[in-house]
Amino acid sequence: MMGPAHSLSGAAAWLGVGAAAAAADRPMPWPVLLVGALICAGAALAPDLDHKAATISRSFGPVSRWLCEIVDKLSYAVYKATKGPGDPRRSGGHRTLTHTWLWAVLIGAICSVTAITVERWGVLAILFVHMVLAIEGLLWRAARGSSSDVLVWLLAATSAWILADILDQPGNGADWLFTAPGQEYLWLGLPVVLGALVHDLGDALTVSGCPVLWPIPVGRKRWYPVGPPKGMRFRAGSWVELKVLMPVFMVLGGVGAAAALNVI
Ligand SMILES: [Zn+2]
């Protein structure tokens, strides 16, 4: 899928988690629902850091271009080192290492540990990065074009600052789910993991599938491209994605948000 569909599916997924949390008697305060949905929308773009044309690789100027090159080389090296007898030859790292459940969990864990150890500036950094991505993903058409990079960064920095202040107020959810002292913002890693997994699922629906199970082997393949039967797959950016999936994500997100806030 392309950026906007990935972001929307990420936001909808977190709103669904909000509904589930409300049903399980751990309701999210509205700031957790909102911030989580935005982080998840941003995190749902992150696995494509292995592709230089992807939104994330163009969102942070030279920093992300440089990171993208490193991630692509690292992914390719890991692919070559671990490929099974049934895995095809490849020429680059796109849709390999960063498109696995292990990567999702790793990035989420790094965010959670950063949030509880670096505290304020750690939380702000996580919020800033994901706000930039969420703005690029959800407002894709408006934010398109490199001239608006600085504006997007300013908007993301301001909203990160405001959202962190709101979350810090008592009762607003800094300690949602993890309530022991010192565990504030431990939950920030959850929308990060979820966003990456939702991205992988979205890619699995497309023609080439997604090796989300790595390093668990399937038959002779260690990078088995998970996906539905061939006839049910679509091309990234096709009408199915724009005219069917995106409206469905919006409706599901709306229903999830209403259930999470106990409106329905
Ligand atoms: Zn992808």
Automatic annotation (TrEMBL):
<protein>
    <submittedName>
        <fullName>Metal-dependent hydrolase</fullName>
    </submittedName>
</protein>
<keyword id="KW-1133">Transmembrane helix</keyword>
<dbReference type="GO" id="GO:0016787">
    <property type="term" value="F:hydrolase activity"/>
</dbReference>
<keyword id="KW-0472">Membrane</keyword>
<dbReference type="Pfam" id="PF04307">
    <property type="entry name" value="YdjM"/>
</dbReference>
<keyword id="KW-0812">Transmembrane</keyword>
<keyword id="KW-0378">Hydrolase</keyword>
<dbReference type="InterPro" id="IPR007404">
    <property type="entry name" value="YdjM-like"/>
</dbReference>
<feature type="transmembrane region" description="Helical">
    <location>
        <begin position="100"/>
        <end position="118"/>
    </location>
</feature>
<feature type="transmembrane region" description="Helical">
    <location>
        <begin position="124"/>
        <end position="143"/>
    </location>
</feature>
<feature type="transmembrane region" description="Helical">
    <location>
        <begin position="150"/>
        <end position="167"/>
    </location>
</feature>
<feature type="transmembrane region" description="Helical">
    <location>
        <begin position="242"/>
        <end position="261"/>
    </location>
</feature>
<feature type="transmembrane region" description="Helical">
    <location>
        <begin position="32"/>
        <end position="49"/>
    </location>
</feature>
